[in-house]
């Protein structure tokens, strides 16, 4: 059994919950789940045991009712779990959503203890973080992080950082847990958090789920690099109409995304071709089905200039939700293997910015084989 607690019951988490239950009930094929039936832990063994949010219209509601806002065909098996109150800090700033959080009622230190108390009852093996994209500060040392919690420094900390801190304390007490950081805040890429995780029996996967146009750009760039074609520039646009895109209209939050997305160019090409890779706009009628476009100019043999133009309309949330079905099971496997800290072989395939921070993005086709081998599966093409 893999007991899962969700942090951020929005679009991605709701499609994850809904699709998971449908697959478990045999009503849906596990398309979009890379290692669907192959992992030793089966999809039917994954169980959502808790959910947290800070949107006042979701906290206290039944999970089924929240999921139904995103998927009218949500299965009734989701009934019976109440969405609990998380820590909001500045998570919903500038968004048209009323925030409510434990931090309105207590200090951050008390909120951490409160969460650990709840988690000891819920007994999660894996936390999945799919909160709203945050603007964040990088902690340089454990002392700085602990001081910020101790002194209730709400300006310095983001909700994700506090959740990881709490999950580490929880993991230390219960012997092990995993934290899947599917958002851009640097956790698996932060030496401070990886060290904390290692010492606390916590596995962290991260950062930022690799979906949408970015992994496709990575594949195309590897294709060009393998053939020694010289890339002149990369332009990649993303326009979407879900709340995540709305949040990204905030400059500071967008910076975090830009950071994770842009690291691929130098990592894969070996040089930093001029590029513009970031979510570019919010257009409500597009809803969750975003518009992506990419344009890559490069030089081929004898100085020939080629151009690639790729466009698409991609359902945003299901792309990440499918990966999460693997990640929660891989998280439990990592705990069983006692690979505390972070696991590059998993991150390299599933994350846009794979931790630890000294490790690069590699072509996904290779990362895919590495992840399979880490999970004890036969490589597919090697
Ligand atoms: N394909 C994808 O959709 C994709 C890919 C990579 C990463 N992500 C990341 O996943 C995250 C979620 O995306 P989404 O489309 O589901 O967004 P969303 O806005 O629909 O959902 C986010 C949810 O988190 C809640 N939340 C915000 N702050 C919180 C906090 N501090 N504690 C608990 N809950 C909190 C919000 O109220 C909301 O319900 C984003 O950070 C995004 O960057 C998404």
Task: Describe the protein's architecture and organization.
- With 382 residues, the protein is of the alpha/beta class.
- The chain has two domains: 2-209 and 318-374, Rossmann fold (3-Layer(aba) Sandwich), CATH 3.40.50; 213-315, Dihydrodipicolinate Reductase, domain 2 (2-Layer Sandwich), CATH 3.30.360.10.
- 39% of the residues lie in helices and 19% in strands.
- The chain has twelve helices and eleven strands.
- It has helices at 11-24, 63-68, 108-122, 142-150, 159-174, 191-199, 213-226, 243-248, 251-269, 316-337, 344-350, 364-374, and strands at 2-7, 46-53, 83-85, 126-129, 177-181, 202-205, 230-240, 275-282, 289-299, 305-315, 341-342.
- A seven-stranded parallel beta sheet has the order 3-2-1-4-5-6-11.
- The radius of gyration is 20 Å and the shape is globular.
- The model has no long low-confidence stretch (mean pLDDT 95).
- Nicotinamide-adenine-dinucleotide is lined by residues 7-13, 52-55, 86-88, 91-92, 130-133, 159, 182-184, 208-209, 211-212, 242-244, 316-317, 319-320.
